[in-house]
Amino acid sequence: MNSEYKKKKLGLEHWQWISVLLMIYDAIAVNAAFYAALWLRYDCHFLDIPFFYLHAFSIMAPFYSVACFLVFKHFHLYNTIWRFAGLNELLLIFKATAVTFVIQVAGTCIIPLFLDAQEYMPRMPITYYVIGIILQFLAVAGIRFSFRVFLSVKKRNGSGGKAVKNVMLIGAGAAGQMILRDLNNTHAETDRICCIIDDNPNKWNRFMEGVPVAGGRNDIFSCVEKFGIDKIIFAIPSAPADQKREILNICSETECELKQVTVMYQQMGQVVNAASIKDVAIEDLLGRDTIKVDMEEVFRFISGQVILVTGGGGSIGSELCRQIAAHKPKTLIIFDIYENNAYDIQLELMERYPQLDLVTLIGSVRDSRRLDSVFEKYRPEIVFHAAAHKHVPLMEDSPCESIKNNVLGTYKTAYAAMMHGCARFVLISTDKAVNPTNVMGASKRLCEMVIQSFDRKIKAGETDKIRPLSIHAAKLSECSAPPQMELVALRFGNVLGSNGSVVPLFKKQIAKGGPVTVTHPDIIRYFMTVPEAVSLVLQAGTYAKGGEIFVFDMGQPVKIDTLARNLIKLSGLRPDIDIKIEYSGLRPGEKLYEEKLMSDEGLEKTANDLIFIGHPVDFDSDVFLERIDELAEAAYANREDIRELIMSLVPTYAPKNFDNKKEKEAVSC
Questions:
Q1: Do 306 and 378 form a contact (C-beta atoms < 8 A)?
Q2: What is the pTM of this model?
Q3: Distance set, CA 203 to CA 117, 213, 214 (Å)
Q4: For residue 511, how many other CB atoms are within 10 A of its CB?
Q5: How far apart are CA 55 and CA 325, in angstroms?
Q6: At 453, which helix (H) or strand (E)?
Q7: Nearest to residue 125, comparing CAs of 41, 32, 69, 188?
Q8: What is the spatial distance between Cα 174 and Cα 261, in angstroms, rounded to a whole number?
Q9: Half-sphere CA count of 35, side-chain side, radius 13 A
Q10: pLDDT tens for each residue of 336-392
Q11: Residues paired with 213 in a beta bridge
């Protein structure tokens, strides 16, 4: 260890050896430049140069060499990484050259006076200074920029057998220029930028960093064929959503790999580089703009509050925790039954928000006594209830578990919140609750009915009719004051990237080489991203007055078949050629389309143009609350006829093939 340290201490780093060689080169080059100036001044005839000029030059040379070394060192010309040299480095060389020019002129005029040798060292010709300083600048800059030129030539001529991709850059603006330069420096061995596309006609048939601007978006297909493009990089991070979507949809019709530039911000402003290049996400191709939420309103709602998120380790719950943590709550409580997910989001939030008062608890929303102890100790003021079983086919096979976790878990959580003075309770629901054909959707509709029943009874002052479930009749805490809690539900569609989403499944299938399985060629769904969904949840909480079901205008629904094909294209592959698409048939309980509202629900606008309030469907809350115990007993008894009981509580629930199944069971008996 000591010998290695001494060796490193006594030796020089690679860049230091390069600096030494540059010093030697400069000492020769700066003097050679002015010698060549004399030679050119006398028509390239050495014998015609007067001796006194040569004598003056030889006396000045050592002084000038030392002066150049000091000046160049001052301007960092010996410790710059010349591989990434650009305009700033060129300006440094220019400044250093200007200073040394003054030294050269002053030196050839002052030294003869100092030595009293004007007779033997007369003033040099003007051309000596002009030509000499030009040659010096070219020599000093040329050697330093030669490495960049070498890399560029190496890139254009191939990279030692490595596969080089031909790249099309979309966007000839500032971001495109930065990406182009950074790619030339950092990805020279793998990516060759062949052409640039920009919709501004003023830039067509011109060049940026030596790369032609070949046309606008209408020329994408022809340029892909002309230049043999393998990869397309969308480099307009500030483009409006509709423009970005239109261009990306054109690009997705090619067989090229698609990438996009995401903007990174630093303290001194916006920085775009090769690290900003990410995969084009499938949500970038969806037919709507990104949801805009008034985060100031959300901040006022959350700031200084004690907030509980059930299911806080899940895809929706964890994003809720991230956005809540960013808005300075008094305390954030993560409640989840799966310790690994809870631990992951706990570590993330502790690192990002070290000042956050964060509590992470393990427990189940099925456990009344655990919920009672949590609410008793921490007294949360706002509850976001995201804990739920959401997988449609699995819940078809385990209907009682769906009821236990979704319906009874919601009831118990809302009951504990009501008894401990919680101010607001927000349920995460789904569009599958509308006219459900599966147990999961029906269970979420029952959750909405629980919320509506609680809200009605609290407003009517009839909280005595809301009782703890007799199935878990252990004594719980009593209400210390009349409840004033407002309960609402937020209903939205499929969430891209969430646990159980089709997108991760499709990506895995594509990575394996296919096939990609789609249940039906005509199946359609509404989609949103996880951050969008969570932003809606937060803003719905600010609008809540109690009993509402918030719904979101998600634009036009998307065909799952189109979604799968776009994902294949984004991977640079061809649907049905490189990756096959197979239709497996609708899964148990699955519908071809989802609805956002039932026929009896009306819509009311909110301050956000994309968020609406669905007025609650009228039902008898007294009867519903009385039958909750019956539903709980059936679920915990794992009764086979649980679907019939659900149908009696949710009239709009119409499970597929239910009658046929009953007939088969009757025959078998």
A1: yes
A2: 0.62
A3: 60, 7, 9
A4: 9
A5: 77
A6: helix 439-460
A7: 41
A8: 12
A9: 14
A10: 999 999 999 999 999 999 999 999 999 999 999 999 999 999 999 999 999 999 888
A11: 196
